[in-house]
Specification:
The structure holds two protein chains of two kinds. Helix content of chain A is about 40%, strand content about 20%. Chain A folds into three domains: about 5-210, Rossmann fold (3-Layer(aba) Sandwich); about 225-330, Rossmann fold, CATH 3.40.50.920; about 360-530, Thiamin diphosphate (ThDP)-binding fold, Pyr/PP domains (Rossmann fold, 3-Layer(aba) Sandwich), CATH 3.40.50.970. Chain B has a single domain, classed as Pyruvate-ferredoxin Oxidoreductase, domain 3, CATH 3.40.920. Chain B is about 40% helix and about 25% strand. In chain B, helix 4 packs across helix 5 (about 140-150), helix 5 (about 140-150) packs across helix 7 and helix 6 (about 155-165) runs antiparallel to helix 7 (about 170-190). The radius of gyration of chain B is 15 Å and the shape is globular. The chains are: A alpha/beta, B alpha/beta.
Chain lengths: ~525, ~190
């Protein structure tokens, strides 16, 4: 087959298609969005499988689990924090097991390019006691995805593939292989899937029994590579994922590079690691994310007679993304000669709301409505509107996780904070805002929820949304919000004065109000025109 | 043979289209490549860069180490200067002279262009003027690609063919305007 240019995300997506994928589910989130973007396009073209933007990651996971239960191959993908949302079905699916191959793709964001934290999904692999893959390049992303589906069926367990931003959003050429047909329908064995304690105990025991086999599979995996330098017993490198590339780059011109072990599978390949550690005195561990391998290698007391270097020893920074330069330094290599930085003061250019964005008008109206209200707090959420935190708006005071604006406003209102305002987008509201609003309605909490309805999931590139327009208003009303306190504004400069008044009125109402600020995203409008 | 390029600009200026053309031309020319790009929040009017690596051997890292870049290719002059520390001491800077002023503290343009010209090798083209001349002000990114084309290790023909493919869906007028933009950029660089 010809070589194709693919993003790392797309290499995973195409690998899944060629592995006989029947159903794919996801919620958008950088850097994982392009996996399902690709699958949605492909499903529209071929009609060969299902690819769905789900309401949230938990729902996506359960939908994929249903596909697996039915005997077919399923993929569920999300960004790292999406796995937190899906953690409940994820952890329990390690107990039920998988029937059709089930691949969980979690894309981490070391350096927090577009995220609230840099949590490392490999801990979830360990937590659930399942098998995990970590590709270092596009070809591996494709090949490992195919292998992961086979292994999932062989082990009868979900398998996790960990990506990082740098691979997700890097493009390269990938060689593909002949596709495998999809599975036939074949229902899961009922008792394994009913997690009553009596079944769950049995299934957990079976999961524990498979751990040694997984370590053996890891040791035997062709994706791991051990190369010992017979002449140098002093220093070796243990590298995983994208960090392995930085190591190879740094020693590319070296006639006798140090011993190294590339780790691409979890649980850790214990036999291979033992051989490297026996061979050299000092081991440098290179991994993007948390010191996951390094800590296991060190344990509490270290390895007698050996020096282990990495993030916990301070050889590498504990926070942020690795770079080729950081890895060069850790290897004791000096910086390359470079052009001197210009003396010009380089004004920063942070991201900002687009010209004409409806959020700008909503924030301007909100800021004016809250003038003189010293006790006010605006709880916000995950989306483009988080940029309302930056000047000139300075309009929000929190952004924690999907849906938290509504629940946090409720909590603050419960203890007397006023005005308590929540600002949440329509897609985020559908994702995780509905349930906290349901609770707040019951209590008639003294808070004002502003739903920014731009009819899309804008930040991640314009994926569909579940609660917009009249359907959103009916949904809010159906949750029990009093009709007279469901207000709609159109965020446009010409409506500024009346929008300020609506917000003021609803803040003055000492109970629950919902204001829907409805105007389509300008990027989406532009796409429709072109 | 290898070439490492930092593509720079502001989110929305078409950096990824330049990258698309170079990727596809590299594939056509049988070169290995990796190209790291920025998606998500930073694309909203923020500074964006893409690391583009071409080689007839294996490319390991998706990111270019500092001091390794052979070229900075920027659609915006301030953004060109931002990545000087990635450039080899004898590297080349190819940039537009047209500023994108979406920040309050944008430095004096004369000082920015002076900083660009302080690089040992630099090519500055008026992409706005040339794109308009080509028929669409949107083609500034392709003007820059044209300006870089005679310095790239890619075949000019492969670049042209990919530009045609990129704009095929938009009709012959758009294709021709972009090919003209490419040619005007190329000539401007050769004449500078």
């Amino acid at each position: 087959m010809p070589r194709q240019i693919l993003l790392g995300d797309e290499a995973v997506a195409l690998g899944a298609v060629h592995a006989g994928l029947s159903g794919a589910y996801s919620y958008p989130g950088t850097p994982a969005s392009e996996i399902l973007e690709y699958l949605v396009r492909r499903a529209e073209e071929t009609k060969a499988f299902t690819a769905v933007w789900s309401v949230n990651e938990k729902v996506a996971y359960e939908e994929a689990l249903g596909v697996s239960f039915a005997g077919k191959r399923a993929l569920v993908s999300f960004k790292h924090v999406g796995l937190n949302v899906a953690a409940d079905p994820f952890m329990n699916s390690a107990i039920t097991g998988a029937n059709g191959g089930l691949l969980v793709v979690s894309a981490d964001d070391p350096g927090m390019h577009s995220s609230q934290n840099e949590q490392d999904s490999r801990y979830y692999v360990q937590f659930a006691k399942i098998f995990g893959f970590e590709p270092s390049d596009h070809q591996e992303a494709y090949d490992m995805t195919r292998e992961a589906f086979d292994l999932s069926e062989r082990l009868g367990l979900p398998v996790l593939l960990r990506l990082v931003t740098r691979l997700s959003h890097s493009r390269s050429a990938v060689e593909t292989r002949d596709p495998r047909p999809q599975n036939e329908l074949r229902k899961g064995a009922g008792k394994d899937w009913i997690l009553l304690p009596v079944n769950a105990r049995r299934r957990f025991g079976q999961l524990l029994d498979r751990q040694a086999e997984m370590v053996r599979l890891s040791d035997e995996s062709p994706f791991n590579e051990l190369k010992l330098n017979a002449k140098d017993r002093t220093f070796g490198v243990l590298a995983s994922g994208i960090a392995y590339n930085y190591f190879r780059e740094a020693v590319a011109g070296d006639a006798a590079p140090p011993s190294f072990l590339k780790v691409s599978t979890y649980p850790l390949p214990e036999g291979l690691i033992r051989r490297l550690v026996e061979h050299v005195d000092t081991i440098l561990v290179l991994e993007d994310g948390y010191p996951f391998i390094e800590r296991q290698l060190k344990g509490l007391f270290g390895v007698p007679g050996k020096t282990i270097l990495g993030k916990t020893s301070g050889t590498l920074p504990a926070a942020g993304e690795l770079t080729p330069d950081i890895v060069r330094k850790a290897l004791g290599l000096g910086p390359l000669p470079a052009l001197a930085a210009s003396g010009l003061p380089l004004a920063g250019r942070p991201p900002q709301l687009c010209v004409g964005c409806p959020h700008i008008d909503t924030f301007k109206a909100l800021n004016q409505a809250l003038e003189g209200q010293a006790g006010a707090n605006v709880f916000s959420d995950i989306g483009c509107y988080t940029l309302g935190a930056l000047p000139p708006y300075n309009a929000i005071q929190s952004c924690v996780c999907m849906g938290a604006s509504v629940s946090m406003a409720r909590g603050a209102a419960d203890v007397g904070l006023h005005p308590a305002v929540a600002v949440i987008g329509d897609s985020t509201f559908a994702h995780s805002g509905i349930t906290p609003l349901l609770g707040a309605v019951r209590a008639d909490a003294d808070m004002t929820v502003i739903i920014l309805d731009n009819a899309t999931t804008a930040m991640t590139g314009g994926q569909p949304t579940y609660g917009s327009g009249p359907a959103l208003l009916r949904l809010v009303e159906g949750l029990g919000v009093a009709k007279e306190h469901i207000r709609t504004i159109e965020p446009l400069p010409k409506n500024h004065e009346q929008n300020v008044q609506v917000i003021k009125d609803e803040i003055a109402h000492r109970g629950l109000s919902v204001i829907v600020a409805a105007r389509e995203c300008v990027q989406e409008q532009r796409k429709k025109r072109s | 043979m290898k070439q490492d390029i930092i593509l720079a600009g502001v989110g929305g200026q078409g950096i990824l289209s330049i990258a698309y053309v170079i990727d596809n031309a590299a594939l056509a020319d049988g070169l290995a490549f990796k190209q790291a790009e920025v998606h998500g929040m930073a694309q909203r009017g923020g500074a964006v860069q893409s690391h583009m690596r071409l080689s007839d051997g294996r490319v390991w890292s998706d990111l270019i180490p500092k001091g390794e870049a052979d070229m900075i290719l920027s659609v915006e002059p301030l953004e060109a200067v931002r990545y000087f520390d990635f450039l080899r001491p004898d590297g080349i800077v190819i940039t537009s002279s047209t500023p994108y002023r979406n920040i309050p503290d944008y430095p004096d343009l004369g000082a920015v262009l002076e900083a660009v010209r302080a690089a040992p090798r630099s090519v500055v083209v008026d992409s706005e003027k040339l794109a308009k001349e080509a028929g669409t002000v949107k083609a500034q990114n392709i003007v820059l690609l044209g300006a870089a084309s005679s310095f790239l290790i890619l075949k000019e023909e492969s670049l042209r063919r990919t530009i045609e493919a990129l704009f095929r869906g938009r009709g012959p007028t758009v294709i021709e305007a972009n090919l003209r933009a490419f040619e005007l950029g190329r000539k401007a660089a050769l004449g500078s």
